[in-house]
Specification:
By secondary structure, the protein is α/β, with parallel strands linked by helices. It has 2 domains: 273 residues, Aminopeptidase (3-Layer(aba) Sandwich), CATH 3.40.630; 163 residues, Alpha-Beta Plaits, CATH 3.30.70.360. Helix content is 34%, strand content 22%. A 6-stranded mixed β-sheet has the order 1-2-6-3-7-19. Strands 10, 12, 14, 15, 16 and 18 form a 6-stranded mixed β-sheet that branches. The protein has a 3-stranded antiparallel β-sheet with strand order 4-5-21. The model has no long low-confidence stretch (mean pLDDT 96).
Length: 450
C-alpha cells in the first residue's frame, strides 16, 4: 500500500515542521546557527520515527545529520535521500517583504530563506518516510538520510565524509536534494549536474590608490585585468582556452532525443528575467543543448576603484575578478585549472594572480538505468506528467556520490522554477510540497518492488 492519503491528512504538520526549520537560521557562509539547525533536523527525524545521529569529521566542520530506517520486508535494497540543512545568506534584508527567517504562510506559499532550498525539499523526504512508517509500520526498502551543512559553500568536506563513512552510506540509488517544477507544474526528473570551477583573478599594480591624473604614468590594474579576461571567451560564450573541450564526449543520440523532447518556454523564461535574447542569439534546440551540456565562463563579480555615488577621480592600485566556470562531464577541475594557468601565461598575463576557491566535477546517470524509469513513473503518477532532463544547468556534489558510493543519482522535487531561491522572498508552494511527498512515497514503493 502506498500511503498517499496519510500525506493529505497530516499536511498541516508538514507545513508546521517546515516553518520550524525556516525559523532556525543556518547560514553556512557565516557559520550562523549551523549546530543548532543540525540538532533540530535530528529531532525532526526522530519525531518521524527515523533513527538518527550527528556524524563528525573534525573540529570546525559542519556535522552531517544521518538517518536510517531498516526495512523488514526488503532489507536487501537501500535508497538514500541526500539533502542539506544550510542556506544562503539572506541579504539584502530590505528587499524581503517579511523577515527572511519568519516562515510566514500566505495562501499557498511559505516564505523564508531555505523554504525551497533546501528545507522544503528535506521535509518532503522526511514526511514520506513517516507516512510509510505510520501507515504500514515499515518502509518498502532500507532508507538512509545524508543531510549536510556545507552545500551552500561548496560541500568542501562531503567527499571526506563519503570516504570515511563509505560502508555506512552504502546504497543502491540516491534521490538528490532538489528538483525543479516548471511553469506548467511538471516536475523535472534530472539525471545529472554540471561541475564548477570557481576562481579569483587579480592584478596589483601600485601600493595604493592614486590620483587619476597619474594614469599617464601608472598602469591601471583594472584595464590589465579586463584585457586578460577578454581572452577567455568570445561574445557567443565559447571558451577560448586551449584544450578546454579536449576531453569532452559529444551528447549521445539518446541524450539528444531526450533534449529535443524536453519543453522549454523561451518567451516565459525571457519575461521572467527581463531579457530579449540569449547568449549567441541561441534559439530552440541550441538553447536547450546549452542548458544541458554547455560549458560556461561567467564573471560573478569585478572589484576595483570607486563604485559609490557621484564621481571620484581615482586610479586603483589593484583589481580582482571572480569567475565561475560550469564544467561538463570529462572536464576534471584540476586539469582545467592547469589549462587556465597555461592560457594566461601564453597570452602574456603571468602577472595575473590566480586563487582557486572550489572545483567540482560533473556527473550524470545513464538514462537507460532502471532507477530512471522507477523515479519517472512515480513523478508521472503524482504530478500527472513529468519531464526527463539529461543534466541540470546548476552544480552540486553529485560526482563523489556516483564515484565513491557507485550509486546512480536522480534529482526530483518540489522547487518551483520561479520560487526565488538564493534571492529575497524565497518561497515554497504548499501544493507542490504535498505532491512531492506523495511522489517520494511512490518512488520508495517502485524502487523496493522492482
Amino acid at each position: 500500500m502506498i500511503p498517499t492519503k496519510y500525506v493529505d491528512t497530516y499536511l498541516d504538520e508538514l507545513v508546521s515542521d517546515l516553518q520550524t526549520l525556516i525559523r532556525q537560521p543556518s547560514v553556512s557562509a557565516k557559520n550562523e546557527g549551523i549546530e543548532k539547525c543540525a540538532s533540530l533536523v535530528q529531532k525532526i527525524l526522530q519525531k518521524s520515527g527515523i533513527k538518527s545521529e550527528l556524524l563528525r569529521l573534525k573540529k570546525g566542520v559542519a556535522p552531517i545529520v544521518y538517518g536510517e530506517v531498516k526495512s523488514k520486508q526488503n532489507p536487501g535494497k537501500t535508497l538514500m535521500f541526500y539533502n542539506h540543512y544550510d542556506v544562503q545568506p539572506a541579504e539584502p534584508f530590505d528587499l524581503w517583504d517579511d523577515p527572511p527567517f519568519s516562515g510566514r504562510k500566505k495562501g499557498n506559499k511559505i516564505f523564508g530563506r531555505g523554504a525551497t532550498d533546501d528545507k522544503g525539499e528535506l521535509i518532503t523526504r522526511i514526511k514520506s518516510v513517516e507516512a510509510c512508517l505510520k501507515t504500514t509500520g515499515d518502509v518498502p526498502c532500507n532508507i538512509k538520510f545524508v543531510i549536510e551543512g556545507e552545500e551552500e559553500t561548496g560541500s568542501a568536506h562531503i567527499e571526506d565524509y563519503l570516504k570515511k563513512y563509505k560502508k555506512k552510506f552504502s546504497c543502491d540509488g540516491v534521490i538528490w536534494e532538489f528538483g525543479y517544477v516548471d511553469a506548467k507544474n511538471r516536475p523535472i526528473v534530472g539525471l545529472g549536474m554540471k561541475g564548477l570551477l570557481f576562481v579569483e583573478l587579480s592584478v596589483k599594480e601600485s601600493i595604493r590608490d592614486a590620483h587619476s591624473s597619474l594614469a599617464v604614468l601608472i598602469k591601471n590594474p583594472a584595464w590589465r585585468l579586463i584585457e586578460a579576461v577578454n581572452t577567455l571567451r568570445d561574445s557567443d560564450g565559447k571558451i577560448l582556452i586551449k584544450d578546454w573541450y579536449k576531453d569532452v564526449s559529444p551528447l549521445s543520440k539518446n541524450d539528444l532525443n531526450i533534449i529535443q523532447k524536453e519543453p522549454f518556454d523561451e518567451t516565459a523564461f525571457k519575461k521572467e528575467f527581463g531579457i530579449t535574447s540569449f547568449v549567441g542569439d541561441k534559439k530552440g534546440l541550441d538553447a536547450k543543448k546549452a542548458l544541458v551540456g554547455g560549458a560556461t565562463c561567467n564573471i560573478a563579480g569585478f572589484v576595483s576603484g570607486y563604485a559609490g555615488d557621484g564621481a571620484k577621480t581615482v586610479l586603483p592600485g589593484s583589481a580582482l575578478v571572480k569567475i565561475d566556470f560550469r564544467l561538463i562531464p570529462k572536464m576534471g577541475p584540476k586539469k582545467q585549472i592547469s589549462r587556465l594557468k597555461r592560457h594566461l601565461k601564453s597570452k602574456g598575463f603571468s602577472d595575473v594572480g590566480i586563487k582557486v576557491y572550489h572545483g567540482e566535477a560533473a556527473a550524470r546517470t545513464d538514462s537507460s538505468h532502471p532507477f530512471v524509469s522507477q523515479v519517472k513513473d512515480a513523478a508521472d503518477e503524482s504530478f500527472g506528467k513529468s519531464i526527463l532532463n539529461v543534466s541540470n544547468a546548476g552544480t552540486g556534489p553529485m560526482y563523489p556520490f556516483v564515484e565513491i558510493l557507485n550509486a546512480p543519482c536522480i534529482s526530483i522535487g518540489s522547487t518551483y522554477m520561479f520560487s526565488r531561491i538564493h534571492s529575497p522572498n524565497e518561497f515554497a508552494r504548499i501544493d507542490l510540497l504535498k505532491k512531492t511527498t506523495k511522489c517520494m512515497c511512490m518512488i520508495m514503493s517502485n524502487f523496493g518492488n522492482a
